[in-house]
Amino acid sequence: MLEVTDLRTHFFTFGGARVVKAVDGVSFRLREGETLGLVGESGSGKTTTCMSIVGLLPRAGRVVGGSVLFEGEDLTRKSQRELRRIRGRRIAMILQDPMASLNPLFTIFRQVAEPAFFHQHLRGRTLRERVRHLLESVRIPSPEWRMRDYPHQMSGGMRQRIVGAIALAGGPRLVIADEPTTNLDVTIQAQYLDLLKDIQRETGVALIFVTHNLGIVAKMCDRVAVMYAGKIIEQGPVRALFDDPKHPYTRALLGSVPKLGSKEPLYAIAGQPPNLADLPSGCAFHPRCPEAVPRCATEEPGDVHLAGGSVARCWLVSDGLTRS
Amino acid sequence: MASPVLEVRGLKKHFPVRQRLLGRGATWVKAVDGVDFAIHGGETLGLIGESGCGKTTTSKLILLQEVPTAGSIAFEGRDIADLAGAELMSYRRAVQVVFQDPFSSLSPRMRVRDIIAEPLEIHTQLARAAIGERVAQVLALVGLEADVAALFPHEFSGGQRQRIAIARALATDTRLIVLDEPVSALDVSVRAQIINQLEHLQRTLSVSYLFIGHDLATVAHISHRIAVMYLGKIVESADSDSLCARPMHPYTQALFAAALPSHPDDPPAERTIAGEVPSALRVPPGCRFHPRCPSAMEVCSRVEPILQPREGGGEVACHLYPQPAPIERSRGA
Lengths: 324, 333
Prior knowledge:
heterodimer; A: alpha/beta; Rossmann fold; eight-stranded mixed sheet; four-stranded antiparallel sheet; 13 helices; 12 strands; 23% strand; B: alpha/beta
C-alpha cells in the first residue's frame, strides 16, 4: 500500500552552502493493516521521513530523490493542492504534543468535525452524529457534553484521544503516529496504545509508529525499521529483530534498555549520536561501534537482504554472508 | 543498621487554592499528604508515580524550596527546619539536585568551569587554583575531560550536559543527590551511560540518591528500595527486588501492567487500569485509588487504609491485605 523507495530529503541552509542529509536513501514498504515501527534517536531522521511522506517539510527541506508510492500514486510528485486532499482523508497524523495539535480557541466539536466537513461535506445533524461517533470510538465519556469543551478543559490523555479522533475523522488508510505517547503517564500510555490497537483491528488502518521506545515497538508493531543518521540500518519482522538483531547498533539499543527486575549493568553505547552536518566517513555508526573493522571507516555498507525478510546495512553482516 | 541519612516523617504540603475573591471558600491541594521514608548512606530510594502524585513537591520540600505544612525532615539526625546560619549552609552543601532537563538547568551564559565552581565559591573558602583543581576532579568523576571546562553548555549534547549537572551536584562534599527524572529527556543510547555512571559514582563515593521517576524499569534498575506514590501518599514501599517479584498494591500492579514489554513475545498485561489520576483538589474519600481500583471493595470508599508491614519486607496500604492486630502505625519506609 505504501512503498517508499530510496527517499532522500536534504535541508539546505545558508543559501545552499550547507546541506544536511536528514534522510538519505530510505526504503520500506507497508501493507494494508500493518504496523511499522520507525525507531531511532533524536536527529536520526525518523520524523523527517514521515514529513516527507505527507509533504509537510519545513521550507529549508526538500525531497531530492526517491519516490513515495501510496496506493499507486507517487506523493513526491503531487502539488500541495493535491496533497491537501490526501492529508486528513487518506493519510492522517498524530503528533507528540496534543496541546500543540489542538487549537485552544475552538471547541472540540469544531476541530473533530473539520475533516468530515471538508472531505466528506457533512453538515448539520449528520456532522454532529459523526463527531459523536468518532468521540465514542476513542472512548471519550459523555461525548455529547465533551464536544462543547475546549482543549484546556481536558486532561493530557483525553486530548491525545481527541487528536486520535481527528485523525480518524477522514477515514484514513494510513495513520502516522509520531511519538504519540511521550507526554503521557505510563498508565495513560498503556490505555492509549490499547486504544490504537483496538481501532486498528476495527478499521484495518495501517500505522507508522515513530518512537524511540523499543518497548512500544515490542507491544505494537509487526515490522521495525531502525534509523541511524538518516538511514535505515536494519529492518525486518519485529520478532526477528528482537531475537536476532544483526546490526551492532540494534544490538546495542536492545542492550541499553533496563529490563524489569534485572540489575545487570546496562550496555552503554559509547559516544553521542552524530551531527548530521558532519557525518563520519564510511558507516556513520563506526566511531561508536564496538565491532568496527577498518573497512567500516572508509566504505559505506549497502543493504544486505537476509532470509525471513530482514535487511541490514553492515559490513559484518555482508562479509559474514560471503564467507559462509 | 546505621541511622539514616535522611528521614522523612508525616510530611505534608498543602497548597491553598482560592476559589473566590478574598480567599473565601479556599480549598487545599494536598500535594503531599503524610509521607514517611528514610534513605540510608550509599543507598538509592526510588520514588515512582504518575504526574501529580507529589513526587516533585516532596523533592522541593527536601531541597528547602518549600516549607512543609506538617511533618519533619531530618538530615543526619537534625530536623532541617531548625537549621540556620552555618548549619543551614552545610545542609545545602550536602544535599544537591539534578533536574530532568539539562537544557534549562545549566545557564547558557556561563562556562562549564563557572557552573561547577559556583557552589564551591559560595560554600567553601578555596583559593582559585584549588577550585580549578576541584572542577577538573569532578569532571573526571563524571567521565569528561578537564579541558571542557572552558566551553559553554550549548557546545554539549544532552547526555554530556547531564554529566555536567551531575558534576556540579558532586562539587561540594555531597551526601545526598535528589535526581528528578535525570534520564527522561535523554536519547535512549545515552540513558544507559548516565545510569551506569550514577551507579558507579554511588559505589565509589557512597553518596545517597533519591531517584524520582515514572519509568518502572529504570527506577527498579537503579534503586535499592522503591516507594510508590499515588495522590500525595505512599501506597507501597519495599525492596526493589521484592517489589518487582511481587507487587501487592493494586496501583503498583497497574504500573507493572502498564510497563512496556521488553520482547514482542512477552505475555500481554492482563489488565490495564481504566480512568485517570483524579485532581488533587478532589481526592476521593477512603482509599484514594478506589475509583480506579479493579479489586475495590465496599470498605475502600469509606476507610483510608494505612501502611502495614507487607510480606517479604516493606509496607503496603491496602484493605486487600488484612491488618494485623493491634493496629500499630508503622514508621519509616
